[in-house]
Design brief:
Its EC number is 4.2.1.1. One of its GO terms (molecular function) is zinc ion binding. Its cofactor is Zn(2+). Keywords: Lyase, Metal-binding, Zinc. The protein is an alpha/beta fold. The protein has one domain: 3-Layer(aba) Sandwich (Beta-carbonic Anhydrase, Chain A). Helices cover about 45% and strands about 15% of the residues. The protein contains eight helices and five strands, in the order H-H-E-H-E-H-E-H-H-H-H-E-E. The protein has a five-stranded mixed sheet with strand order 2-1-3-4-5, with helices on both faces. The longest helix has 19 residues.
Length: about 210
Amino acid sequence: MSTPHTPAEAWTTLMSGNRRFVEASASHPNQDAVRRASLTSTQHPFVMIFGCSDSRLAAEIIFDLGLGDAFVVRTAGHVIDNTALGSLEYGIEYLDIPLIVVLGHDSCGAVTATKGAVETGAMPAGFVRDLVERITPSVLASLRKDKDSDVNAMVEEHVKQTAARLVENSPIIAGAVARQKTAVVGLTYRLNEGRADLVYSNGPIGL
């Protein structure tokens, strides 16, 4: 496949890949020896995926991508820290990537742990506590909207808040979005169906 250069082209290519995955008709592009050899001295990924570390959320597979297509950053619960934000800024500043995707999923363990901590007041041990503290604002926002929010509603809220914070916290990302060179979208992934649904967008993806 040809490399998309605009946010709208990147968005169309990404979601076409997810559709193939859902329909069990994946084409597994850009995974041969010729592609591998072409990437030894350069890369031009068209999408940057900031997703949860969950083993069921393998970005290149669920969007039917290949080598050199996606610049992937993953943390449990797609929690932003300085190194994650720096990695995303690198993709914008040095690789000119036209699309940033924040990718959450059903039944997220990190969000589930945060929900439990908010309900009981008992915080987890070790550095898991840091994850929970960073996800707590999203869980509280979801509960303010609906006191009976379930974990999946909290995941959706967390995806929205994470995507918005990327633009708010990073002048580099905000500048690229303002110049319409980059778009930021938030997706929630349905584990059973394999489908990624749009819940947030900021930028020219052609909707």
